Amino acid sequence: MEPFFSSVEDVRARLDAVGYLADQAIATTVFLADRLGKPLLVEGPAGVGKTELAKAVATAAGADLVRLQCYEGLDEARALYEWNYKKQLLRIQAGQASGDGAWDAVHDDIFSEEFLLSRPLLTAIRRTEPTVLLVDETDKADVEVEGLLLEVLSDFQVTVPELGTIVATRRPFVVLTSNATRELSEALKRRCLYLHLDYPDAEREKAIVLSRVPEVGEQLAEQLVRTVRALRSLELRKAPSVAESIDWARTLLALGLTTLDEEAVRTTLGVVLKHHSDQTRSLAQLKLADRS
């Protein structure tokens, strides 16, 4: 596989050019995953930019993104491939109507490429163009799905019993994300490079906000980041994500606000906190609640 990036600094520069501000650890791990041809497991709380990293790598590398969104109950048919049963049935019925319905002939026909529905894993394996495969929120899938991923990530191949083994001619750059709601298997982790993402420090988050919403200005961005970090220090059901910090900046800009005073926080807090209990607790603990 021809690598996407030539150096760690190339990673940083190209990710920066597409709006993703990567620190040295992120850039180094992305470079190594690319150069070694290893999947990259990115773990951390929701909203710290794990999915955005995969998207940014695809954009920076000029590659297409193939995304497998994991969820409870995800099975092989949705992740890998399935057969087009309706089309197969029509072919069987057509064969019977024409008198050409010998089962051996029909069987070979209906289990051919024409009737195969390729899902994200198989799609990524078969592509010959530069590809980033994103396996998003891996921890939400059942443990059985990890067994399916092992074959794909170990040998970059997929076995379809009726067609044989399909081997990648050009390996995709693979990013798996996890919110750490459950522990992933050691076998899966062993096949990956590991990157833990946490909320950025104040300076980096301010830089991220300004890179996405430059019109908001230095002073307001600093006030916003300071407030967001104060919110994250509280015991909330869902702490504000970096994406929500950006949304808050856009909200303040849309309202024509130039300072994040108490009234501005009260009226726009729903942009960053999506639970009423979190809003009530935050207003009280930040001493922004009505004093009446």
Structure description:
49% of the residues lie in helices and 14% in strands. It is elongated and about 80 Å long. The chain has 292 residues and is an alpha/beta fold. The chain starts with 7 loop residues before the first helix and ends in a 7-residue tail after the last helix.
Query: From N to C, what is the helix and strand string?
Result: HHEHEHEHHEHEHEEEHEHHHHH
Any idea what the radius of gyration is? 24 Å
Biggest sheet record: 5 strands, parallel
Query: Count the strands?
Result: 9
Query: What structural class do you assign from the helix and strand content?
Result: alpha/beta
Shape verdict = elongated
Q: Work out the oligomeric state of the chains in this entry.
A: single chain
Query: Between the first and last Cα atoms, what is the distance in angstroms?
Result: 66 Å
**Count of helices?**
14
Q: Kindly state the percentage of residues in helix.
A: 40-55%
pLDDT < 50 stretches: none
What is the mean predicted local confidence, pLDDT? 90
Strand content: 5-15%
Describe the strand arrangement of the main beta sheet, using strand numbers: 2-5-8-1-9
